Amino acid sequence: MTITRRGLIATGAALPFAGAAMAQETHPARAALNAIKPAGYPREPIEMVVVYPAGGGMDITGRVVQRFFERVTGERSFVNNRTGGAGLVGHTWLATQAPSDGHAVGIIANLVISDAARSQGRWQVSDLDHIAHLNAEPLNLMVNADGPFKTGGLRGLLEAARARPGTIRVANVVGGYYEYLIEQLEQASGSRFLKVPFQGGGPGITALLGNNVDLAFGFFAEVRGHMQGNRLLPIAVTGRQPTAFLPETPTVNSVIGRDDVNWGVSRWIAVPKAVPADRKAWLAAAFRAAVADPALVEEFRNLGALPDPALNSPAALNAAVAQMAEAERAYLVASGRVPR
Amino acid sequence: MDPISGLLAGFEVILTWQNIQFIFIGSVIGTLIGVLPGIGPLAALSLLLPATVALPPVGAVAMLCAIFYGSMYGGSITSILVNIPGEAASVVTCLDGYAMAKQGRAGAALGMAALGSFIAGTVGIVVLCLAAPMLGAFAIRMGPPEYAALMLLGLACTILMIQGSALKGAIMIGLGAWLAAIGMDIVTGEFRFTAGSVDLSAGIELLAVVIGLFGVSEILLNVEQSARGMAVKAKLSNLWPTRADWKASWAPILRGTGLGFAIGLLPGGGPVTASFLSYAVERRVGKNPETFGKGRIEGVAGPEAANNAAVSSGMIPLLSLGIPGNAVTALLMGALIINGVQPGPTMMIDRADVFWGVIASLYIGNVFLLVLNLPLVGLWVQLLRVPYAVLFPAILLLALVGTYSANRNLFDLWVMLGFGVVGWALRKFGYELAPLVLAFVLAPLLEQSLRQSMVMSPDGAMIFLQRPLAAVMIAAAVGVLLLVVFKRKTTTLVGGTA
């Protein structure tokens, strides 16, 4: 039943690519990959699960990666959006129901960590094996180019908050990095913001464009067009160093003197823990080869994110995921959300 | 570039043999998915998105757009013929469209739906290319307080829409609002009414609710009636709208176009909301409101025009600002980005070919759809000759496949079947289903914008009076509610019909 159903979807979704994949010349990494390819695998197209809707940032990344995976391996695959519950439905499926024969992989992001916490103990991030890192990007703090905070930067905005507590409107998405970041800014200003809730980063950016909020956070792809149109200005970015896309914009850390304002998105490939080791190794190598392709790096760059060479092995990635989960937990403990 | 030369340049881009083929394919697929219950434009577009990577950007987006507005044309067909909405924006078309079909006027309803869609689509595109940048800039000024006021006005109109017993109508609105509350609370992040279920944490899928309530329940009713040997078979007579139909319909079409255009422009608005509100307005302004639901052509013409106008105007925030107003335009935005085009204020200059090419494609697509749909009216009507014993299992199967394809989630199928039984029972007891669905659509938007307004306002509820547009709409909502109270007092208080 499972095989037939997945096969059916695959035929529909993968057909348009069949021609494109075949037309490509053999990828240089193919020979090395074939040498470690397990016998009799894959025997059907590989399902690449994206837990967010088609057309969004995560989906676009997923589809680019899927295309390069086919180019590198010559195997067929398809992106399947298993959406719902802001990612919870898809993540839960990956961790608890996905076939463990290597025919389903997740194209996921660090948001899986908070979803694991929301799953009420049904599954944990460690139920997945994190096998290949894709890319990462920080959050950009934006203000309206015609608004009251167009000059003065983040420092000016924080001073205004201090002078007039409870008047500055910030677009918030509850239960995640947006909220943590706002809290850190509140601590830095010793003041309170008006946290206007939205169902995602995009609607918050729209509200900023209409001057219905004063500050909003967005990923580069969400704000680039508005920056080019001179409607929005970046005032700071999260992370330890400035981003390559906005080298002039300071980090929040450097403005408010902290070192833990590093919320952003990191995307990678994960499979159920029970997938056989040889299959995992082949998948990991295939995605690594895809991410090493300069053409893919260029596509990532267009989307506003870059690969992280330091996370180039499953061991390094698994350690980094554990570290991210720990950093988030530490923040939740420090902010009193989770008992010590 | 001024609109006229821009549009001419757009036609130059779009009028290649290849692009015309894409638009034609899109129109056909759109009509088909509109006809098929369950599978709506969102599911179809997400299935086809990968296929567009290999296409040139203008052709790809033109095709996807054609699917979107093509589904608005197609959606009315099953609504009218068998009382099963092809997609969510055609729900209200069932009310009068099916009643017309039972009177043998299916052809008139189908023809008017196609013509209304065409007029609205075309007028929408003209306004779109003349005023896109200006209207876009206006639409983003609409903040949470204006939305809250607009949704309040919408809900007030829903109450006006209730035909029979006020109590039953209120129960349906309450039920719709409660069902919509299931899932994650956007202010606190808490789960509401999910009983610890992961499936419910996502909330209940609109598509599954609509197809269940209207489609599955209709099938159940028919099965029941034919088991007792009393199924009503629609008669077939005059295939085309008459002069009287035209006379009755031109004003609703224009009103539907204006209303649909305005609703589609707003982030969060879309064809579904537009069609419901148009129906409520037609019932309000039409003579003899009590005959609505019994085969009034205005009840088909207005909403069908509104949903198409909303599709056209929904392109404005997307193309001129890079802001997708609803899930389908978000998908179109994804398609542009995948094809290397960044939608936004600079797109009109950087990628004028794509901007004007897509707009020009809308003209062509609407002509295709009219040409495609009018001659087919005769063919669609023949569907009624298919025995129900064949037709209904086929529709049920398509509804199952379509609903599953939206999220690939089996749970949605249980929701659909469950709501089929619920809808059957509610109809047996004389409850109207439309207020339930409208509350299901509007209540979350109202809740969200109301709570956003309260958070962003330092002066509490005063924010609704400080913003002129919001204040005007709230005043209108209060006016409508007073009207309801007044009307209910002067006419009979309780009716029992469905």
TrEMBL record, chain A:
Pfam families: TctC (PF03401). Residues 1-23 form the signal peptide. Keywords: Receptor, Signal. The keyword Nucleotide-binding does not apply. It comes from the Bacteria. The keyword Transferase does not apply. Belongs to the UPF0065 (bug) family. This is Tripartite-type tricarboxylate transporter, receptor component TctC. The lineage of its organism: Bacteria, Pseudomonadati, Pseudomonadota, Alphaproteobacteria, Acetobacterales.
From TrEMBL, chain B:
Residues 22-438 form the DUF112 domain. This is Putative tricarboxylic transport membrane protein. Pfam families: TctA (PF01970). Keywords: Membrane, Transmembrane, Transmembrane helix. The chain crosses the membrane at residues 20-40, 47-69, 107-140, 146-162, 169-188, 200-221, 318-342, 354-374, 386-404, 470-486. The keyword Transmembrane helix applies. The keyword Iron-sulfur does not apply.
